[in-house]
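Hi, here's the filled form for the chain we discussed.

Project: internal
Contact: R.S.
Residues: 459
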Amino acid sequence: MLQHTLQHLFDEPSCATNRAKDPKARKQGCGGKPLTPGNAAGGCAFDGAKIVLQPITDAAHLVHGPIACEGNSWDSRHSLSSGPMLYRTGFTTDLSELDVIYGGEKKLYKAIKEIVARYDPPAVFVYQTCVTAMIGDDIAKVCAAATERLHKPVIPVIAPGFVGKKNFGTKLAGEVLLEYVIGTEEPDVTTPTDINLLGEYNVSGDLWNVTPLFKRLGIRLLAAITGDARYHDVTKAHRARVNMMVCSQALINVARKMEERWGIPWFEGSFYGVPETSKSLRTIAKMLVDRGADVSLLKRTEALIAREEARVAEVLAPILPALKGKKALLYSGGVKSWSMIAALQWAGMQVIGTSVRKATDDDKRRASALLGDSGTLWESLPQREMYAKLKAGEADILLSGGRTQYVALKAKTPWMDSNQERHTAYAGYDGTIAFLKGIHKALTNPIWAQVRTPPPWEE
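And the returned structure, exactly as it came back:
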């Protein structure tokens, strides 16, 4: 079953890697090469599956494997919840050496039974790991038996880490949603303005900056897949009128198959920065009207955009002159490789280059178009080269994840977290305000003038 699923995803026709290939070459892959043993930089397929599914906040997430697998993946992203907190509990079967020898299926069933009895979740997701895949535990069979006996959806997630990198694991998780979750229940009521967000994980509360905009426009978010999600909402996602793809690298297979099965059109957009937020709202409104929503939605959307853009400009007016002309080095990846460029350029800043790790070909084209001749795309930028650029003053600030913050500190250059480990929401209009205020605060912090001053014994 795993081999069939893997080949099916390698052949994904909507993947940016595959679009220009002939059918024979397409089979070589959208999924990427398997990880080198011992090298899990950037995350493995199991980690990617957890990233997609764990934000379903009222479900239980059980990792069938050694305790280290759960320990390494738990709490790796700040996907927040507005209600249920069961997703924050780390469930694992904690396999031992004896379990590896004799098999862990009985232990798995016992763990599922205990979770259902103690917590009564709407569903239990069971994650296969490298160890349980190699010893041959039939997770799908155990989950099917548990579903029948316990009268609760128990869903196998067949995404052992060795099958590929994190981005491939996100697609495997998407297949799980399509096979076991989406379309299994019907909503009590539908409206002409129902939408889904795909690949939105409510990192640091990003989603909560966007949902108020939808409410003001009369747009109903049927399901976010899967930020701050509830299991029963995801089951009914097939009745939406439009899907917005927030991160195409993650769930492109879900968007395409939902269009094939239920006729839901989709587009890729972003809520990072004023221009992209406004563009996404306009696209959603137009697509909903095309599918039967009242045409007045277009006028309401334009009025909302005008008010919000004016408000953002007014709030940021005191700091925009200080940001104008400042240079940033953006080292993130994926959809942020281009969407954050738009936010920075709107403030008058210059991006000297951006990382396009984990980015699709479409992401790279967008980034290249935004940068023009003034910036560079890096698949990888060694820390030594990054340090040299910062030390030479080529950039005034580094925007990246926590792993490269020390490069900036060593170069005595301001740094701000732009990755999933951050604690501040940057999506939407309010997120743009927080994003640019954070940059201004970092750039104007007096500590930088102090650390750059030579010590007295060197004067």
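Let me know if anything looks off before we file it.
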